[in-house]
Design a protein that fits this description.
The complex is a heterodimer of chains A (112) and B (113). By secondary structure, chain A is mainly beta. Helix content of chain A is 0%, strand content 59%. Chain A contains no helices and 11 strands. In chain B, a hairpin with a 6-residue loop joins strand 7 and strand 8. The chains are: A mainly beta (112), B mainly beta (113). At the A-B interface, strand 4, strand 5, strand 9 and strand 10 of A face strand 4, strand 5 and strand 10 of B.
């Protein structure tokens, strides 16, 4: 069974810092990997999706990379803002299965 | 921007009763999902649905659970004989294809008393 781990569990940074969130998964046979943002009491908002054949995806200040062979993905947030404060989740979809495994998330606090 | 809507936002039910959680996915999406998140725990996959049938289900999704797409717009999750441990946030999601992002609703908080 696929296990997804996210490190760190929580992170507090001053506004303006660049930061990296980590996601690792145990089975490299994945179809894609998604990064989500979850605000308190809300659903999940998809940030970036990386297909298994891709190495990275970018959207604005966000860049996600994927190293399938080592079972790792990183989410890079540039010039962090207080509005970035949320829990960030990664989820992987195993190859040939329409199901998803989530990590437990990194709770990010960006201080003004 | 189109969004996934879920009703009700909060459902309180006595143990042993049946509940139906409702979702309206984005209209041109073809893949539908239910997840749950017990307070303080990971988001857990329950079931995926495509072409009017279940495509995958987790170990959690046993005979107590069922899903239905009764018309062209709604996607429901029915939980029979609810138990205290069914208390959780239930999220519906939809996507246009397997390689497109999933769009989530804001969830239904289910409280079993």
């Amino acid at each position: 069974k696929q296990e997804v781990t996210q490190i760190p569990a929580a992170l507090s940074v001053p506004e303006g810092e660049n930061l990296v969130l980590n996601c690792s998964f145990t089975d490299s046979a994945i179809y894609n990997l998604q990064w989500f943002r979850q605000d308190p009491g809300k659903g999940l908002t998809s940030l970036l999706l990386i297909q298994s054949s891709q190495r990275e995806q970018t959207s604005g200040r966000l860049n996600a990379s994927l190293d399938k062979s080592s079972g790792r993905s990183t989410l890079y947030i540039a010039a962090s803002q207080p509005g970035d404060s949320a829990t960030y989740l990664c989820a992987v979809s195993p190859y040939n299965f329409n199901k998803f495994y989530f990590g437990s998330g990194t709770k990010l606090n960006v201080k003004p | 921007e189109p969004e996934v809507t879920q009703t009700p936002s909060h459902q309180v039910t006595q143990m042993g009763q049946e509940v139906i959680l409702r979702c309206v996915p984005i209209s041109n999406h073809l893949y539908f999902y239910w997840y749950r998140q017990i307070l303080g725990q990971k988001v857990e996959f329950l079931v995926s649905f495509y072409n009017n049938e279940i495509s995958e289900k987790s170990e959690i999704f046993d005979d107590q659970f069922s899903v239905e797409r009764p018309d062209g717009s709604n996607f429901t999750l029915k939980i029979r004989s609810t138990k205290l441990e069914d208390s959780a946030m239930y999220f519906c999601a939809s996507s246009n294809s397997l390689n497109q992002p999933q769009h989530f609703g804001d969830g239904t908080r289910l409280s079993i008393l």
